[in-house]
Amino acid sequence: MRTIEQNQDLSQRLTELVRSLPGVTVVYPTAALPAAVRGHIVSTVTGPQEGDALVLVRLGPVGARVSVNMGVSAHDSASEQCRRVHAAVVAHLSAEGISATDVRVRVSSID
Amino acid sequence: MTPDSPFRPDSRAAGDEQDLRSVDLDGHTLDELTDYLDSGRSPVDPSIENSPGCRIALAALLRLRTAANALIEAEAAAEAGKDDRWVKRILSGISRDAHAGRDIPVRSDDPAATLVLTEGAVRGMVRAAGDGVDGVLMGRCRLDGDVTEPGAPIAVTVEISVLFGQPIPDTAARVRSAVARELAKHTELAVSSIDVDVRDVQFIGRNEPA
């Protein structure tokens, strides 16, 4: 079983990955907004911590459950971008030797 | 945008009061979002920037502000202020359409994947498509049907305001075409119809009838 810190490290890496993908305009907090905002405030005070770990990760004995909430560019198909982000997350997990048991990707805005 | 501007949300407006109070913008009102735009989105407010609904509403308010500026340049703001129900209708539509709503599924070959677009994202995209048509301001957008069920027929209805001088049938056709194109590009919805409801014609400045 991995620790909370390991969960957060992986969350940060996945957040950075999703942010770097073409067409992704914003990564939203996946947690309930008040908690997410508190996390952002903490990160601005103490450095890049919770605010940079917006992708929700839960690591269990059989694999990872991941949840991404994001905005995408209107220049390309939102559905296609959704599939690309999913594929990138699964590939990243695989590269770290983690199986994906549940990957949820939500497009909440098309800019 | 001044406090007296017809493009500022006015929750006191009869008939629209409930609409503007019942919005789901993560605790924010359109008035607060307008103030935030006025401040140049600085300092950054994470509770706004981290909210998809707020960001969708901000984008729509910016497009409406462009229309407001055109009005002011035409020195017609005072005239428009005499009857700004259409602006309130647009603002009401922005607030109601921006909330996340239902999840619209996106196909995937991976059984472990759950991929969705929010209804709010799709309505925001439809609104942007309509606003992109010359002489048109979008009102509400509705997706009727079970959007959560792949392949279920979906009837789309958009309400628009048209500037005087635009041929209405042609303008409605261009809106319908723009909305259809964007829905086909971004979603996998089985769109069965797109109805364009022209709610009013705006006489603004130099385009007023003789």
Largest sheet of chain B: 3 strands, mixed
Please give the share of residues in helix of chain A.
40-55%
Portion of residues in beta strands of chain B equals 15-25%
What's the total count of β strands of chain B?
5
Overall pLDDT metric of chain B: 82
Write a structural description.
The complex is a heterodimer of chains A (111) and B (210). Chain A is of the alpha+beta class. Mean pLDDT of chain A is 84; it is low at 33-50. Chain A has a single domain (4-110), classed as Alpha-Beta Plaits. Chain A contains three helices and four strands. Chain B is α+β, with helices and mostly antiparallel strands and 210 residues long. Chain B has one domain (17-207): Cation efflux protein, cytoplasmic domain (Alpha-Beta Plaits, 2-Layer Sandwich). In chain B, 44% of the residues lie in helices and 20% in strands. In chain B, the strands form two sheets. Chain B has a three-stranded mixed sheet. In chain B, strands 1-2 form a two-stranded antiparallel sheet. In chain B, strand 4, helix 8 (168-186) and strand 5 form a beta-alpha-beta unit. Chains A and B meet through helix 2, helix 3 and strand 4 of A and helix 3, helix 4, strand 2, helix 7 and helix 8 of B.
